[in-house]
Every structure is written in structure tokens, then in C-alpha cells.
Fold each of these.
Amino acid sequence: MTKAVYPISYVILTAFLGILFPIYEIDTPIINGLNLFWGLIYGLGWFVSLRIGLNPHLADLFGILVWPVMVLTFIFVIVKRAFHSRLGTGAAIAVLVLSLFTTISRPEVTGNAFPSSLPTFRMLLAGVY
């Protein structure tokens, strides 16, 4: 059980950065951002399902429910295997730390239209609602 604690916490952190972090609006410059790396990973399934011509309702269900669970499971398996060696542990932590630096201010805050054209999870969710 203790061997699964680090991969589970890694998965929870990536889900927070890619899905939950950009959704909540908190009036703090550090928290009010959009993580491009994890946002694009979690938004990719939704984007692809819309582009291949799925029914929009099915694409929404796939993008909101199925794809994030698939990504979380995949990240858990990869990180669990990586944490068996020192090199893998260092690489997994390096990817997580470096991904923290891919956070930019949300387009509503800056007025910049560049991030709104990217298929991140938050931008696709905002398009649906």
C-alpha cells in the first residue's frame, strides 16, 4: 500500500493541474492560471473525439469522463513503474517540476487570445458551457 502512495499523489497533482486548477477562479496571480502541459494532455482526447466526427454529446462524455480516467490510469501505471528505480523516480519528479513552469495567466486575465485557441481541458469545457 505504501508503494502506491507516491504514484497516487502524483496522479492527483496532475489532475489538479490539468483539470481543476484552471476551472476555479481565485483572485490570486499565482493560482489564477492555466497549465499548458497538463491542460493539453487532458484536453487532447476531447479535441480528437470532436475532430473525428463523433456526436458532440458523445464527444463531451468522452472528453469529460472517459479520457481523464484513461489519462489518470496511464499516468499511474507509468509513474508506479518509474518509482521502482532512482533514475525513474528522478525523471518522474523532474517532469512534474518542469510542468509547473508551463503555467500561464488565463486569457480572461491577460486579454491575450493565444491560449484560448489551444485545445486545453479548460478551454474545451468553457466552449461546452
Amino acid sequence: MARPGHRYPQVEPGARSLAVAGVVACASGTPVSRALARARAAGAGVIVSGPRQAVRLAELARAAEWGLGARPVREVAWTDLPVLAETATESEARRLAQAGASLVLLRRGARIVAAIDAAALAPAPPESSMLARLERAGDRVSEARLWLLRAAGKLGESMGTPVHAVGGLVRDLLLGFAPPEGHTPDVDLVVEGDGIALARRLGEEIGGTVLMHAGFGTASIEGGHAPAGARLGRVDIASARRERYARPGALPEVAPAGLLEDLRRRDFSVNAMAMALAPDRFGHLVDPLGGQRDVMARRLRALRPLAFVEDPTRIFRAARYAARLGFTVDRPTRAAIRLGVAHEPYPALSGQRLWREIELLAAEPHARKGFELLVSWKALSLFGVGNPVRVSLADAERLDAWARAAGVAVDPAELYVVALLAGRPLPAIERCLDRLALAGEARARIEAGATRGGRLARRLEAPRLAPSATDEILRGEPGGAPLGAWLRGSARVRRRVEWYLAEGRAVQPRLTGGDVLALGVPPGPDVGRALAMLRRKRLDGAAGSVAEERRLVKEWLTAGKEA
């Protein structure tokens, strides 16, 4: 019987009290199908395949379902997992789970005897607030964003649906990134409830246009304004959901879920954080997967070994985030990328989705670094390109920078793909363009750049080439061909291509067709020939004023139209 007033020692539960899964061991090279059969026979929930390496039964079953049954189990297992002594305290295990460990292994001596599944643990209460970071900037754009977030939180509270900001906004606040001057950042919100209903209400509040995507429970608001007229960026709103991939590379099947499941379905830990917007918790950070720790370490960490088999477009996103943020891709994530690449060709993955990822990567300020990562990961095979590339990606970066500075319209995605394909055999180029589902003018431009650039560069290399001759070589070529010539040409070739793109192709005579008719040129093909002659003269500096062009037309007529 307890004695009143007596102080009893407090005994903390051990880590073993959190273990929910029995374990079975197998060699790391054991095929997935055999390891799965062994785990099922033993009634185990976790398979240990090496030091600090294990995989859940459900994950192993999914790998077998997706055609990975012959792969060694180490390729689908979590690696670098923390290991505690069986006698460790519960708080030690919880700290590791909160730092992002998916599984915590418990050992007795040298043998793993149990595993703690972090997904089964209740999340820790928020320990930090983002409010000071939100308020710190003080510029008009940041103030408008803060007003938007507060408005969304209040609306959610009135509707009984908790609202959180997620994704890049939270990550960039932790990094201390301020929006570039003149740039209004987009905002991603997750609603534990009806996201479309909240989008309608918020759209009315900010005066924006609501675009709904009912199949995924998502909506976007564009054109909204904060008080005092400050323009808001796009607001993307989604109902919290879980995802299931029926086939590798297919779009996921979605179902309503809570915030934690929504965060766990995401790609990388640094994108799997949320910030509460409810008025009484506004700014509180929700970080169940160790994203803040990875942000501080500038580390990109995938949330599942099968993340890139589920959705291979995440490989492109890994390259994009690593290049943009300057993050290092950690070792387990690189292993997961290798598995994702090895599992191609992904018939359920459309060419349109692949091309969209190429466009997004090419639009990044550090696109070259991103494409170089794809090359190093051998991920170009996802759209039918083998290594090594024939043209330096640094050259593509330089041409893109020149075009932006000169105001020349060049599609960066097309440019980088031309660089990756230049000099390859035509069948290989066509396979790539087929895989990307490209057609029409975009396909013609890329194919011309990849196949005709070398020949054009050789023609443009001539030591004495009048501007009109440069124009004649390039004018009839498809739009991508000059880019291919620049990529494969010498400094002289590049100067000529730049002149043509920035100046030469826009040159026109001052006289019109009616003007040359009035000077005595007979109707018909001779009108076009006279104008072409005047254009050549202007390109070569032999015609400046209207009077000079009239003189040239008269001389042309007198000479028998041979100039």
C-alpha cells in the first residue's frame, strides 16, 4: 500500500516497450522474394539484412509486387539505421525517431532482437515556432504572405478544419531565404478536411480565381490580393491525403488522411514539414520526420527506399532541389536513386510527365548542376539517353545565359536536351523524343539541333564569310539548328550564330513591295528577288537609307537583276 508523503523513485519505461515488430535476419544478398517468404513464415514484421540495415514486411511485399523480387534485399532496405542496446531508455529511442529514423533497432549483445517503428509512435509536440521568422523580413511581400497565412488559419478554424502551410515555404523559412525582389512566392496549404471548400472561401476572401481539381482534392487560387493591394502569389490548397501507387511510375491513388500521413507520403524530409496556422498555434512547426535537422545539415534525404521506384520523377526533383539549395544527397538516398534508375523503363510513366520535369529543372538558376547530377546518376536512361554526353553541359549553360542577357528567346529545356543528344545517331535521338512524347515544332527544333548542328558549324567556320552568307546558311534551318551549331562550334562559329540570332535574322529592307513596284520592278517573283537583294545589301552594310535602297533597285534593274 502506498504511504502518504513517501517519494517513490520514477522508473522510465525502456526502449523495448516501444517495439512493435518481431524481427528475422537474412543475408543482405538474399533475393527479396526469398526474404519475404522467410519473414512471413517467421511471423516477423521487420527483416534485418545487415548492420544498421532493415526493411518492414509491408515494404518488402510492395517491392516483390513491383517486380523487384529477384533484387537483393539490401537494395530495398533502410540503411544507416540507429541501433540501441535493448536496455536503452524510451526517451533515447523517441529522440532518434523524432530526428528522422524510420526504424530504431534494438540489440542484445551483437544480435538485433527487436525494432521500433517510428510511424507507430505518437509525434512529439511542437518545440519551436516559425512566427519570428515570418515577421522578421518586414517587406511588403512578406507582410502580404503573413496576412494570407493568418486569414487561411482563421477560415480553417471557423470551418473546423485545421490548416497548415507545408513544403517549400517552411523549408525556406528555416534556411532564411527571403523572396527575391519583385518575386511573389507561391504558398502550399494542407487542410485536414475539405480543401476545395476552404479554397472557395479563401478565394472569396482574397479576391482570386479558384481552379479546382476534384479528383485529387486540390485547388489553386490565382490573382489574389492582400489589404493595401499587395499582390499574392498562387495559393495551392490540398486536402490531407495518403497515397498508394498501384504500379511503379503510375499516378497515385489517393484517399483522405490526417496531416502526419500526408507528410509521410512526401518525397524528402526537408519537404515534409508543416507550420500550424490555427490562431492559437500559429507558426508552430510540425516536423515528425527530422526535416529541420536535415535542413540545418543541408542534406537531402528521401523518405523511403522505394521512393524513386514509386515515382521516378522524384529523381529529377532530387537533382532540382540539390542544385537549387546546394544540398548534399545522402548515401541512402543515392542508393535509392540507383534502384529507381535500374528499374526503368516504367511503362506507366508518361512522356509528358518526364518532359515537365525537364522543363522545371531547365528553368532553375543552377540547371547545369542539376543535369550533371542526372548524368552522374545515369538517370538519363529514364528518357532514353545513355551516358556519356557528347557536348558539355557547361556550354549549354553559357548559351542559355547569353540568350537571357541578349533577350533572345531560347527554350532552356529544348537547349539542354539538344546538348544531351548532340552528335548521337538519329535512331537514338528519335527513341528519346518518342519517350518524351514530343511532337510538332518542339520535336523538329530539338531534332534539328541535335542532328544538323555539326554540319552547320563546319559551314560557319569558313574564314571569310560575309554576314549575308551567314544569314543564308542559317535562315532556312529549323529553329534548333543554330543552337546545335553554337554548341558544337568554335568561338568564331559562336560569334556568328549569336549575331544571327540577336541581329541578323531581324534585318529587313526599308522599302516595301509597293515601293519596288513603283520603281519599275515588274509584278511577280521579281518583287521578292528585289527585296531579298536589298536585305543582303543591308546585312553587308551596303545599304542604309531609303535613298540608297532606291538606287540599288535601279542598278539591279539596269544590270539585269543579277545582283
